[in-house]
Write a structure and sequence with these properties.
- It is built from nine helices and eleven strands.
- The protein has 338 residues and is α+β, with helices and mostly antiparallel strands.
- The protein folds into three domains: 70 residues; 168 residues, Alpha-Beta Plaits, CATH 3.30.70.1660; 77 residues, Double Stranded RNA Binding Domain.
- It has an eight-stranded mixed β-sheet with strand order 2-3-1-5-4-9-10-11, sandwiched between helices. A three-stranded antiparallel β-sheet has the order 6-7-8.
- Helix 1 packs antiparallel against helix 2 and helix 3 packs across helix 9.
- InterPro entries: PCRF, Pep_chain_release_fac_I, Pep_chain_release_fac_I_sf, Prokaryotic/Mito_RF.
- This is Protein chain release factor A.
């Protein structure tokens, strides 16, 4: 009996919200039936009041029916996993590199506000400040389920510090979010790996630049590559690169599974960072963040980019809206496919 308790508790946690939504739905349907009966009441005043409330009651029944059906959907794959977040400067030169660094900092503050662990795995600094590429491991409850909505191309519109004419420039950075995995889980053979070491370049001190501490790991069957040069130790760089490689390979498998089950979710990816391909725009001149997928707009951009609390509030609202839309899409797919 004791061994079955965790399973029973898990099943209770799954069924409890379903039962609560069912009670709300049945209460709404009873209220609707009562109003429909009152609409034909002999007392015209009562009937008139009932007809006025009827439309609202029907809307509430539809809403609660939808909410009930959403609780019946199985939990989406991998939402409870940790995540590997990769940020890459796109179009816009030095300004894009500065923006990429800001996004990395934004995610670190967001993670801290959620009580998650945020570990920078690798950073390739740009010559004039900012980063060309960077990756971080984010660990905690439900990290991938939230951070996956950051995947895509982010666009920034502002006047760069080097702009003498006061003109607004548009730059981009791309974000990839991968579910975390490990070598044992992926069953990767050592014979499938090619491991190269080389000297790191850029910031990091004399030791980093004069020893072959940087590591590149290639998964030969797929050609997938992961590198790390941020740590002083070759052993640490190898471990970090292996972690990123496993996450990329796991993501490839995950997307293949989605395609095999006719999933309508689109694969995450950095795209080509074209200025016209975007999920979100950060307009500093108008102090506005706009997420183009769900239409959520915030007018506290400056605070969001410097405050953990503001970042959490803004990103949480965007993530909640996208999560709701995703579950609705999944529900519609189930209904359409019978």
């Amino acid at each position: 009996m004791q061994s079955s308790m965790p399973a029973l508790l898990q099943e209770y946690s799954r069924l409890k919200p379903m039962a609560e939504h069912f009670e709300l739905f049945t209460a709404s349907t009873r209220e609707l039936r009562d109003l429909e009966q009152l609409c034909s009441d002999a007392d015209q005043a009562v009937a008139s009041l009932a007809r006025q409330e009827l439309a609202l009651a029907k809307h509430q029944v539809r809403q609660r029916e939808e909410a009930l059906l959403l609780t019946m959907l199985p939990e989406e794959e991998d939402v409870q996993r940790a995540a590997i977040v990769e940020v890459r400067a796109g179009a816009g030169g030095a300004e894009a590199a500065l923006f990429a660094a800001q996004l990395l900092d934004l995610y670190q503050r967001f993670a801290r506000s959620k009580g998650w662990d945020f570990e920078v795995l690798d950073v390739s600094p740009a010559d004039l400040g900012g980063v060309r590429t960077a990756s971080a491991a984010v660990s905690g409850d439900g990290v991938f389920g939230r951070m996956r909505y950051e995947a895509g191309v982010h666009r920034v519109q502002r006047v760069p510090a080097t702009e003498t004419m006061g003109r607004v420039h548009t730059s981009t950075a791309s974000v990839v979010v991968l579910p975390d995995a490990n070598q044992e889980e992926m069953a990767i053979k050592d014979s499938d790996l090619q491991i190269d070491t080389y000297r790191a370049s850029g910031a990091g001190g004399q030791h980093v630049n004069t020893t072959s501490s940087a590591v590149r790991i290639t998964h030969l069957p797929t050609g997938t590559v992961a590198t790390c040069s941020d740590q002083r130790s070759q052993i640490k760089n190898r471990a970090q690169a292996m972690r990123v490689l496993c996450a990329r390979l796991y993501e490839q498998q995950r997307l293949r599974r989605q395609e095999a089950t006719a999933s309508e979710r689109r694969a995450q990816g950095a795209g080509n960072a074209d200025r016209n391909e975007r999920i979100r725009t950060y307009n500093f001149a108008q102090d506005r963040i706009t997420d183009h997928r769900c239409g959520v707009v915030h007018h506290n951009l400056e605070e969001v980019m410097v405050s953990g609390d503001e970042a959490a509030e803004s990103l949480d609202e965007i993530h909640d809206a996208l999560a709701w839309a995703s579950r609705l899409q999944a529900l519609q797919s189930i209904v359409q496919n019978g």
